[in-house]
Structures are given as structure tokens and as C-alpha cells.
Amino acid sequence: MSWTHLVFLSLLATLLILTLFTGVESASVRDGKDGRDGKAAEPKGSARRVFMPEADATNFFKKRSRRSAKHEAEVLAEQRVRLSADERRREYYDEQRNEFENYVEEERDEQDERTREKTEQWREFNYDGLYPRYPRGW
Length: 138
Fold this sequence. Notes:
- By secondary structure, the protein is mainly alpha-helical.
- It has four helices and no strands.
- The chain is elongated and about 120 Å long.
């Protein structure tokens, strides 16, 4: 098949689709300048379920104004979220502190052991036999 046949068939299919579905309404917004008192046309059929009036659409996401008080359930939900975040943060820092304390304790024990060994070695090396030996744990 040559490319002209492909173009012709695609144009024919497009023309067929456009002629069959001419009754479909578009989703574009009408500006009301069609000579009917500036009022928008009443949507019909499925369009009535999908689209809403402009006044409702502007306030759709505004549950309340900025200065109005929050609902009690909303305040409680925010408080629960804040408390759970605080608890997780507290547990994390407790775990970090415990790990660091364990690390420091192990380091101190190792340092004490090294110091004790070095002291014992020094005493053994420098013992001149005149004085009694130092006790081991001293």
C-alpha cells in the first residue's frame, strides 16, 4: 500500500467518525453571548450530572473561610496527627540516645582496660624488688 492510500483511508475514517458523532456536546464554557439574557443554557442529560453552576464551582473547595473556627473533629484529627508525630520523634531520639550511651560505655570500658593493662605492664617493668609489689586491683 502506498502512503496516499493510507492518508486517504485515515481521512475517510476521520470524516466517518465526525459525521456519526455530531450530536455530542462539547465541554467548553459558553460565554452567554448567544442572545439569551446573558444566562447560560441549562445542561441536558449527562452534562447536568457532570457540570455544576459557576457559583457552586467557585466555592467547591472552600469548606470554610479563613477566619472561621475549625470543626471539633478537624481539630482533634490535627491534634492526633501532631501527637503521633511527637511520639515517633521522641522514640527516635530515645533510641539514638540509648545507642550513643551504649557506645560511650563500651568505649570507656575498653579505655579502662587498656589503661589497666598499661599500668600493670609499667609496674612489672619498673619493679626493683625493694618494695612489696602493688596489689593487682590497685
